[in-house]
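cron nightly-structures :: item 1 of 1
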Amino acid sequence: MTIFDRLEEALSEQRGNDSLPDRLTEEIRAILMAPDRYGDKEYLLEVLLSQVEEYSPYAEAGCCKWAFDSHDIERTLQKIAE
């Protein structure tokens, strides 16, 4: 299973929970549709995968950050796009 397959699976799981914002889903899907363009950014894709898997809209709630939020994913998407 490739990083793109794993990312697609994690994205589908998050979308099933209706927690990941649509705009982030669209940006991630664009990456999934262009593996040739992003294949050399495997480290950042692994980071993105972890963030999608551990995403929570309530990551910043409380005294400790215990998950990733949309801002974390946005920053990683910007690095991937560079």
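cron nightly-structures :: done
The longest helix spans residues 3-16.
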